[in-house]
Please model this.
Amino acid sequence: MRINHNIAALNTYRQLNTAATGQSKSMEKLSSGLRINRAGDEAAGLAISEKMRGQIRGLEQAGRNAQDGISMIQTAEGALNETHDILQRMKELATQAANGTNTDSDRAEIQKEVNQLTSEINRIGNTTEFNTQKLLDGGAGANKTALGSNEAAGTAGRGATVTSTQGATAVAATGDLTQADSAIWVGDAATGVAFSLAAGGANNTALTAYNAGTANTAEDFKSLLENLTDASGLVKLGDLVDVNVTDNGIVSFTTKETGVNAKITIANEAGSGAAAASTLTELGLPATLVQTDSFVGVDGTAAVVTGNELDTTTTYGAESNQINADTAFGKKFDVTINGETYNVTIDEASIAAGLTGGATEANLVSTLNDALDRAVDKDGNTVDISGDVVFSASADNEITLTMQAGTVPDDGTTPMLKLSGDYAATLLGGITDGKNTVGGTFTTKFQIGASNGQSFQVDVQDMRSQALNISGTNSGGSHEDVAGAKFTAVTNVTNGTNNDAVEYALDVSTHESATAAIEVLDNAIQSVSAQRSQLGAYQNRLEHTINNLGTSAENLTAAESRIRDVDMAKEMMNQTKNSILSQAAQAMLAQANQQPQGVLQLLR
Model:
């Protein structure tokens, strides 16, 4: 018998600890209802179940998002329901006004209600909100892509100067044809003219500036750019961007609003008193079209000097849907092709071409090509540019300038102008013939999934009176879509939030105008119906989305439960077993501790 180590007691003690630990874990699981309370319970199961938990919570939140989206849609659709009722009443009034039994004074009274109802449509559009977001004003800013009420659909640019004619296609010292690959656009009718610079995009064209025959320094270019103004002469580029000049001819522009930089390398050309150099002086500003609206003229300069002057700009006219293409060729310029140099002088007087009225491709192409017919060389010979250097409209509504093999009349002399190859540059994109459109789009996205990219976009068109074409901005102006329809001579429509009249209502003061107004109102009713139908489709889709999200969350929860939750019956069995074992171990430990007492009997 040994007394230093009681092996039986040690074994019993170990078994007691095991039973106590098992009993403790069983009690923890039974009290929490979870099989996995810590990573030590099951490391892999914990990782899998936590991932599932995250997805479940994401699905549940996505379901709530969809429900919020339905609430937003119902808010917009409910407002449009009232707009529908108003338009139906306006059609009723127009039908009444068209009846020959009414006198002019009767129609004047009807006109008053039409005016007020139009203002109420504006109020609904301007004030309908969900969580402070306006739903029916077409975004009224950042999301707005709009055209002025008298412009052709697809007209590109507000207040833009595009030098993509001869000025942007410059003849370099090597005889190569080069073009700037960027543009500057001016826009935002709501807040006034503003120059916006951003990373180059799909709408880029060219804005170039060249030394105009004198020795201009980098400071001269700084002054030139700082003093570029809009058509009113009130807004300068220098007011909106910081222009910085270095000694080596690097000019950088930083917009005061966005902080986007544009770096331009400037080098003076040889000739006309300029410092000797062999590179073309060119400024290219990365920018993008921010907003479309009515045309506004912007002053600019473009000239090339390789011992010459060449000045070409194309400028949108101010606020009148007018495009002016002014081309001035002065003195001479040199063209070097395959080592052979040609001296060319084209019409020392300005070649001017203007297009007023409707800005269509056909009119613009015709006007620009007519201007090319008047080009002559230094000997007075007419250069056949109109056939070989041609403006044309492509199928996708872009007007391009194409340079091919220009020649002079065959008089036995060496040709003075010879340009080989084809060169195309976009002059103006997106001018189309079409009915006028006004208004923008409110766009928002609902996150309807638990993962990245699982979103649902909702677009709501501008539902105010001008967007519905039932009010205008021209006094007594004719309606663009419906012959005979016109607007009132005085402003009598407010934005609905104050008493300031800002628009002209549909005129129902005569039989003819009232009859035409019926068709205008039918079109407006159709537009609202289309938008309400779209909103209804959005809502139905979201309802199915909610059902699907609920099903997914339910099934994923069941899978997570199988991993994470405890089987109460089974765990109760384990707890009972460990409890009995613990009690038995305690009793046996007492017995084991008594065994060494037998040694004392041997000592008696």
